[in-house]
Amino acid sequence: MLMLAGVRQLSAGSRMVMALIGGRLVYRLALYAAGLGLLAFWGPTVFAGYAGAIGAVGWLFALTSSGPEKAALTFMPVGGGAALERLFIRLAVTPFVLLLIGWLVTVLVAPAAGIQVAAAALMAGVGCSAVLVGLYRIHGRPIADVLAYLAIAASYGLVLALAVLAGLSVHGVLAVLIGCLLLVDVVLLVGLLRRASHERPTPAATKVALQASVVLGVGELLETAATSVLYAFLAIAGDARETSFFYVLMIIAGSMSVGWSYLLRLARPRLVSWLATASEGTGRALVHRMAAWTCGPGVVLTVGLVLVVVAWGSSRPLALAALVVEVLLYFAITAAAVVLESVDARGRHGSAGGAILQFAAVAVAAWWFIPAAGAAGAFGALCIGCLVKAAVLYRISAVVED
């Protein structure tokens, strides 16, 4: 009977994980489909105003969501962490509210800049949603995550229909999306505030949580920045075909990386709880092994990739091979980074330092790789960046072990 109950519990957990992934998948599909639909209806000239505004502020999503959500998933599952919930709620809501106010003021004072500020508010609104649903998952109510992202996905279907049927402008599309996000976030916020602990965290705990919210957001923010650098170098190279091919490949790589990052977020609370009961040094020893496993095969694959780039230059098969290598390396280093970040403050700072060096390595490698191999070179630069971070994680865990 106990075994049967355990199987049923595991099955229920698996179904919920699939539902969570399904909600995010529907959201992504709706986002891409709405973009393609708007492009087809508006044409490239009008659509460029929408795509340019969104693309210019995409980093705001990582800035407003990644750090606070990761910090909440790291601190709240352990003893005394519930007192920090209202702090994380404020971190999620404040940027959205400030940009909403800024957008409304801009519409009145300088309407010409309204589209750019609206896009920024939209990104902050999605970031707010990500943090709030993360808090729901911590409370054991993951269905809120699914419903929220299905609602946001529906809003993209709504704006596409309004653009086609009612001639909605770029600014109008952004305004409707912001309104839908505001409704979703208000509903999430009301539900959280009803259940959030009224216990006040100590000043020391607040300081640590705020520092962690900043440090834990560095990695994903620099990932976004690194992609921007790659597009910049591709633009300088001046081969539109390579830029377009890289865009298509990045949709594939980006979808897999987003999905993997989300799975790691789902696993983080249990990982934190396990590390809290494990013996001292267990987490760092695990990071040390994971980084070593990454560096070994990773160096072989990346060196082989570099040699082929030098010999053959740009090619579609080479770009696909580089994509596969980069995704595998990304999966490995992000998993190791999550473990290290869950250990202590030193681990979190070490992971952030590794992300900074990773970004620098990508930028330097892209300077040489992209002119030589286009899209393949761009993914080769990402591979080198992954290896640099793996080496940093290996070194940090080795130093602490000694």
List the helices and strands and how they pair.
Blueprint: H1 2-42, H2 44-56, H3 59-75, H4 85-109, H5 114-138, H6 143-166, H7 170-195, H8 203-215, H9 218-237, H10 240-277, H11 282-312, H12 316-341, H13 345-401
Helix amount, in percent? over 70%
Q: How confident overall, as mean pLDDT?
A: 86
Count of helices? 13
* Topology, number of strands: 0
Summarize the structure.
Helices cover 89% and strands 0% of the residues. The chain has 402 residues and is mostly helical.
What features would you describe in this structure?
Helix content is 89%, strand content 0%. It is mostly helical and 402 residues long. The chain folds into two domains: 2-210, no CATH class; 217-401, no CATH class. It is built from 13 helices and no strands. The radius of gyration is 22 Å and the shape is globular.
Which features would summarize this protein structure in a list?
402 residues, mainly alpha, 89% helix, globular, disordered N terminus
